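Morning run. Coffee first, then this:
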Amino acid sequence: MPRGRRAATIGGVIVTAESLTKRYGGRSVVDGLTFAARPGRVTGFLGPNGSGKTTTLRMLLGLVRPDAGVAGFDGRPYERLARPTTRVGALLEDASFHPGRSGRNHLRVLAAAGRHPECRVDELLARVGLTEAAGRRVKGYSLGMRQRLAIAAALLGDPDALVLDEPANGLDPPGIRWMRDLLRAEAARGRAVLVSSHLLAEMAQMADDLIVIADGRLRASGPIEELLRGADGPVTRVRSADDGRLVALLRDRGVDVRANGGGVLHAHGVAPELVGQIAAEHRVALAELGAVSRSLEDAFLELTGGAA
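And here it is:
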């Protein structure tokens, strides 16, 4: 299903932060951060180590009190939500488990605490691929199995929004693909999915929108296509049978055209459709036509000042 055209089958909530600020020892860890993650979309939350991502997520979930600003769900702080686990499912990096409990009993305890139907336990164990390991003690689980169990716990209340910090941690490549498909399916049902990750290549495949921060401040937010396009707008890559004539025609329309070597032209500020239309009007045969997009890694490094 195309991004942005998903059928919502459950009530979604908007995850918001407004002028969110947190200081430790006189240093601003999060500084005036404002963003929104909307229902029916996967929103990637990106930033270098130490950029304030985890602190922001903890403020969203009421685990850290902000020094200024507000964060919440449909304008309501987490601590004021009625039965919060039915509204928000969360996974933080330091998810803890009682090592002596089985995976099934871990979820049973959470289901009882949240007043969720016990039938959800086995349903979710199957969904995350832990049915066969459900009776084993969690201390014998691999890191990836614990991560799957934590994802099951986040989904236990069938929540309207998901807030996930590094959900791919410990997962092998098939597990990462499974996680991606699961989160996109949850967004397709109408949930707001806010996910923090260092896996840029994975985020490029999964996210509809991005929030990029560095040094606790917002650097960019919006649909992933816009962030990959860059500040100068679209760039079109084109090769033709008559480069000189095509360049002249495009420049007559005010298009900035630059040779990129190997007979390739880059037309800046215009989409491929317009370049193709101009070429067709003047019967200039094209050998290649397409949009140029920078990688998410390039965009991330540019937006965060090259921070690693």
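The chain has a mean pLDDT of 90. Good start to the day.
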